[in-house]
């Protein structure tokens, strides 16, 4: 397992280090890896709501929309092929993340980021020029492989490069890039959907090449992290790199701890089995359940299918895309607030505040749904009588 798990997790030590321009620029470039994930989240829902895209690749869904054969508009998108198009990316990302962890550890974070960018770029090109559904699915699979590599390596790279006091803010830079990618994708969908001739969806899907090229070029110019050098036995180079990254000469304590952590991780023969030991169970339980329940709130579904969801509740095509843009703006603003407060207020405060806010929103949604159901019943009963 990477040494960062030990070095970063040691909250009792605060190593000397400054937020140098070198580190700032490096982390900004690396955080751009989040753009590819965010762009894909934002672009997919908008594209699947474009009539020209559905007419070409999913005609059964398009016919349902035009004929309005069912009163339940959610059933308009009931297509196994459309489901395969959207979900194939996440299955590929899951499989790629397993391989990416090995590549990241043995060959460095930069190579894993490079793989992510190249694979994502290839998927974007195939989707942009797609002539058949199989090309769309192949492109989505390549996009998923790219996301799997990037999402595994970029946060790790940021954690290892960031000084102790700014680690939280710089780490959230990855999340900020994701939200910016979502917003940019939603804005592009809104304008591309207006292009006459019905080929705007090609620009939306092919536009993923831009964030892919950013992370690809960035991975070629970014320096390796000291942790990665230490894991590959390059101790002298790692010490010099650590001095440059931290902006101070006194890095002996942090360097020695990184070396000790790396050596300790190399001695672990069954890391996954060790995680299941009794003393680690509370930690592993929280590490799994927190993101698990976050997914159950439905936020990823809302961000991914925002235009489709707004369309199914009666919004027009343009109104659905604009509503997704508004959602993206709120997401970016909230992330910027988190960047400002994560190292000032602490992770626990943001965690509790976010959980409380989500609880309130879920209650509001429940009440609104019940009121809507009562209104529908009150309209139906007099008509039947």
What is the CATH level 1 assignment of the largest domain?
Mainly Alpha
What is the radius of gyration? 23 Å
Strand residues, percent = under 5%
Poorly predicted parts: 1-11
The chain-level structural class is mainly alpha
Give me the CATH superfamily of the largest domain: MFS general substrate transporter like domains
Estimate the helix proportion, in percent.
over 70%
**What is the helix tally?**
19
CATH architecture annotation name of the largest domain: Up-down Bundle
Q: How many domains in all?
A: 2
Average pLDDT level: 80
Broad shape: globular
CATH topology of the largest domain: Growth Hormone, Chain: A
Q: H/E order of the elements?
A: HHHHHHHHHHHHHHHHHHH
The end-to-end span amounts to 69 Å
Question: Main sheet, how many strands, which sense, barrel?
Answer: none
Q: What's the total count of β strands?
A: 0
Q: What does this molecule look like?
A:
- This is Major facilitator superfamily (MFS) profile domain-containing protein.
- It comes from Populus deltoides.
- GO terms for molecular function: monosaccharide transmembrane transporter activity; symporter activity.
- Residues 26-385 form the Major facilitator superfamily (MFS) profile domain.
- It is a multi-pass membrane protein.
- By secondary structure, the protein is mainly α.
- The chain has two domains: 4-267 and 298-345, MFS general substrate transporter like domains (Growth Hormone, Chain: A, Up-down Bundle); 350-385.
- 79% of the residues lie in helices and 0% in strands.
- Helix 3 packs antiparallel against helix 8 (133-161).
- The protein is globular.
- The protein starts with a helix and ends with a helix.
- The model is unreliable at 1-11 (pLDDT under 50).
């Amino acid at each position: 397992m990477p040494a960062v798990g030990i070095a970063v997790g040691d909250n009792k030590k605060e190593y000397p280090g400054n937020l140098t321009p070198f580190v700032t620029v490096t982390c900004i470039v690396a955080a751009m890896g989040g753009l590819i994930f965010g762009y894909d989240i934002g672009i997919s829902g908008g594209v699947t709501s474009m009539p020209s895209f559905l007419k070409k690749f999913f005609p059964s869904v398009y016919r349902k929309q035009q004929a309005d054969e069912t009163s339940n508009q959610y059933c308009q998108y009931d297509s196994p092929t459309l489901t395969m198009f959207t979900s194939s990316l996440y299955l590929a990302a899951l499989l790629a993340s397993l391989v990416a962890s090995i590549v990241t550890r043995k060959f460095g974070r930069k190579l894993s980021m490079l793989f992510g960018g190249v694979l994502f770029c290839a998927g974007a090109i195939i989707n942009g020029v797609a002539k058949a559904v199989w090309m769309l699915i192949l492109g989505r699979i390549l996009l998923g492989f790219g996301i799997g590599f990037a999402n595994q390596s970029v946060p790790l790279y940021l954690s290892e490069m960031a000084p102790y006091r700014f680690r939280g803010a710089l780490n959230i830079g990855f999340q900020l890039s994701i939200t910016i990618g979502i917003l940019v994708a939603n804005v592009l969908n809104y304008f591309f959907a207006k292009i006459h001739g019905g080929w705007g969806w090609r620009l939306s899907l092919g536009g993923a090449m831009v964030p892919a090229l950013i992370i690809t070029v960035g991975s070629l110019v970014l320096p390796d992290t000291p942790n990665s050098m230490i894991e590959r036995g390059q101790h002298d180079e790692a010490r010099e790199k650590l001095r440059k990254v931290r902006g101070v000469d006194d890095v002996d304590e942090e360097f020695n701890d990184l070396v000790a952590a790396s050596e300790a991780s190399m001695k672990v023969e069954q890391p996954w089995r060790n995680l299941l030991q009794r003393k680690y169970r509370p930690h592993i339980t929280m590490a799994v359940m927190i993101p698990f329940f976050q997914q159950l709130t439905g936020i990823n579904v809302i961000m991914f299918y925002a235009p489709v969801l707004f369309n199914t509740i009666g919004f027009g095509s343009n109104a659905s895309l604009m509503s997704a843009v508004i959602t993206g703006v709120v997401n970016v603003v909230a992330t910027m607030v988190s960047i400002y407060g994560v190292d000032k207020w602490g992770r626990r405060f943001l965690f509790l505040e976010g959980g409380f806010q989500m609880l309130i929103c879920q209650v509001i949604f429940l009440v609104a749904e019940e009121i809507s159901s009562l209104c529908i019943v009150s309209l139906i009963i007099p008509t039947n009588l």
